[in-house]
């Protein structure tokens, strides 16, 4: 039974890596049905099921499995796993527009990563929190008719919080030497400053994205 569950999970992982998320979820679901006493393996299956359903845009199922993963990580005392599951929950809640809940989950990921000395997890959590505030700010902007830069205080505050987290993320990924992550941070800083009406700053950050892609940064 043990090998069978693992075999099914490995086939699900292979299919997802090949881009067949529908097929992958079928194998992961089968692995869950077969079951395993190895809770670490089961936690990994829940996590991958949540991610696969996220890519399939089946966010309700993604939430369900990321919650299972979070519960299991807590049960076995896996703090890093708890942080990752919290981050995955946060990203899913963000897409659903549940920004306050998303922030709580992403902040938990950040706290645990800092507690565990996990710099990569910390950088990811900072980036994800920035994304939550960026998405929230964009949603708040939908009802606004003001000129760019002439924003209601609540919208400006939300977007400025996004820039703060992106800047913290940028500092950390520079320290880690992760150029791809630096490019993402510069791009999102550019997008957020554009929404704030800071066009000179936006251009500056978007130029950095180009420099990184050309290997000149």
TrEMBL record:
GO molecular function: G-protein alpha-subunit binding; GDP-dissociation inhibitor activity
Record key words, sorted: Cell membrane, Cytoplasm, Membrane, Phosphoprotein, Repeat, TPR repeat
Superkingdom of source: Eukaryota
Main location: membrane
The UniProt record lists the keyword Membrane: yes
TPR repeat positions: 43-76
GO BP term (any one): establishment of mitotic spindle orientation
Cell membrane keyword on record: yes
Cellular component terms per the entry's GO annotation: cell cortex; plasma membrane
Localization annotation: Cell membrane; Cytoplasm
InterPro entries the record matches: GPSM, TPR-like_helical_dom_sf, TPR_rpt
Listed SUPFAM superfamilies: TPR-like
Family statement drawn from the similarity comment of this UniProt entry: Belongs to the GPSM family.
Protein name, per record: G-protein-signaling modulator 1
